[in-house]
Amino acid sequence: MADCSRLLQQGLGLVQTAAQQDAAGNYQEAVRLYSLALDAFLSVLKMERNPRIVDTLKGKVVDYMNRAEELKTLLAQQQSSSRGGGGGGGGSLVTDPGALVLPSPPADLPSRGSSSVSTQPLVTSAKASSPSFPSSPVPYRGAEPGAPPSPYMSGGPAPAAPAQSGSLSLPTPHEGGLINIEEGQLGRNFESIFAAYIVDSQEIWIRDPNLCHTHQVYNLIRFCELVVRINRKVTRPCLRIHVVTAFENDMQLDTLQSALNELTDSLKAHGVELLASFDNRGEREVVFSSGWTLVLPHGLDIHQSPAGKFRLGACDLMLRPTKQNIIQVFKHS
């Protein structure tokens, strides 16, 4: 059910961005995003057992499919007109993008984190408690009236710029509410993805049920190392990191407790508190107190396994190929 909810949220995010591109007249990009959303929704239909949800989603899938086909026809007409010198009246499907009536996302669908799983508190050397996550974010649709345009998100404010005591390079801006990382891409590390959102966040929540595996614990360490590096260069450092994860058996629990206890002690020396608990409900996500949430399909496991222990990319993630990731970016209050 968690996979079903994740795919559904991914599809909704894609549809909302596709509708924005559609209304702006960026039809090629809109077709691509509608197609990705349809793939996600069709996967949901294969797994979903609630007939009310299935019926609602089927109707919306038809709407999105029809709109994508209309845009493909429009693009083909435009190409044909361009080759023919622009003559003669094929009749555009959309003359005014502002007048376009777009299909709305499906309503009454499962909420994120709807499955129920018992939790077990983790006893660490710091006082551990089950963190209360900020309220579920809504898809970011734009800034409040009067807010300046953002280079990070189309139509809204960027993550707050740091008050710097040293030089801090922010990552390349991400447009449209999605960070699209291709399979096998190089030049992506945690700083390029997370740094702009860590800045000005005094508290961070990480939910990733797969941290029970050793290489994913190393991903958590890399994230914490990035937080510590950024803390040295800003006036409002991150003071607390919450980790919510899961385990498959008692052996994994013992290993994970040991690793998190060690990481907790290490972070203390840098003025950062780590609080951990167990719960496998909800999406893989990172929530920042600065007001941003990143939903990650693979959690922190963004990169492929290194090709060998002694090959480039084994240490430097910028040189390690990525997995395919479509990361959704949300704004919450």
- SSE class: alpha+beta
CATH hierarchy: architecture of the domain at 177-331: 2-Layer Sandwich
Helix amount = 25-40%
CATH-wise, what's the superfamily of the domain at 177-331? MITD, C-terminal phospholipase D-like domain
| Biggest beta-sheet profile | 9 strands, mixed
How many angstroms does the end-to-end distance come to? 27 Å
What string, H for helix and E for strand, traces the elements in order?
A: HHHEEEHEHEHEEEE
Q: What's the alpha carbon Rg, rounded to whole Å? A: 22 Å
What's the rounded overall pLDDT mean?
A: 73
How many beta strands in the DSSP annotation? 9
Q: The CATH topology of the domain at 177-331, please?
A: Endonuclease, Chain A
Fraction in beta strands: 5-15%
Quickly name the level 1 CATH class of the domain at 177-331: Alpha Beta
Tally the helices: 6
Low-confidence blocks of residues: 86-176
Biased composition (Polar residues): 112-128
Domain MIT: 4-81
Biased composition (Low complexity): 129-139, 152-171
Protein name: MIT domain containing protein
